[in-house]
Design goal:
Helix content: 25-40%
CATH architecture of the largest domain: 3-Layer(aba) Sandwich
Strand content: 15-25%
Strand order of the largest sheet: 7-8-6-9-10-11
Structural class: alpha/beta
Largest sheet: 6 strands, parallel
Length: about 425
Amino acid sequence: MIDLKDKKVTVLGFSRSGLAAVKLLLEKKAKVFISDNQDSPKVRENIDQLGKSPVQFELGGHTKDFIKDSTYVVTSPGIDNKAEVLCWARELNIPVVSEIELGFFYCPAKIIAITGTSGKTTVTHVTSLIFKKAGFNSFALGNIGNPFCENITKITDRDFVCLEVSSFQLENVVSFKPKVSVILNISANHLDRHADFNEYFAAKKNIFLNQDKEDYLLINYQDKLLRTLEKETKAKVIFFNRDNEEFNLNQSACLAIASVFGIDKKICLEVFSQFKGLEHRQEWVKSVRGVDFINDSKATTLDATVWAFENIKKPIILIAGGKDKGIQYELLNPYLEKKAKAVVLIGQAKDKIRKAFKVNIPIQDELTLEGAVKTAFRFAGIGDCVLFSPMCASFDMFTDYQERGKLFKEAVNKLDA
């Protein structure tokens, strides 16, 4: 553990993960400084939660003087790694770490870290359920929506942490060292922020940067690029998803994780049979006049939307769009040709997506998500499915994918009102 008592630590970005980091730092008696480039009601609300805690903060922008003399700078995943404030930190030789790294400093439990382009949240959640079913105390944390730092005081050395980690959280790895790291898949993503695929892939590989021969790296065998990582790690490599068609990729990953800790396969199968899915991930909302509505707001990649198309058997009216992440939308064309009856587009990326879709079906723009739901419903008939699977980030119109999914469900519920 690192002793930060009386040490200055600056937290950049004061959303939920930033608030969790600050609370942990205050508990460790650090001198906490908070810097956010916004001065919003949400940031002010988070500051109010600190009460009379001895913190200093600057809002509405970052300054070099504010961060100088920091022992660490803890950065939010939402801050670009090339942002000026992080460049200042490096000029001043201040280590830059994520909230995940800060949590690792104080975590006594074994960590199972899970990353990949798609499927991370489901595997993290289901793995945690498996450990609980096997009689262990387990936490599903990280990019799944539960900040690591927020839960540190509840965790003991007998527990397990199933930790979803994104490329943004892995960019600034210093000492982060999970007992088991898992890479589910890899394809181009977040190219609006990463310079290219190689930079994105390099961030993902940081998940096993500090692992040694006592640790495990679990790799999807079907992904040829991931198979090359066996030569880059010191950890013991276990391949999953070889040729077993009985289980999908996510289930294969969960089984492999369980096997490392000797958990009986029967326990995994029981959890699989009881698992009904997660909110915002191919979540069935309701049927309106014979039309099913599926909330897949968490689908921020092409692969996630392809997965939805492969798992839905009915004709699809797709609602997509949002903040572009450099995705090759044209790769969805074969799936549109087979299953889609129409497409409704929203958000900043709608023009790019429309140009990429070379299919002979109606494609219509809408300004709001509620308008998109109404238009998709008009295109649909009995036995069809309206699928909200954006393939894009949410930040052009919404706070996050959760808010986006919630508003989709509210719009669907209004159809019968």
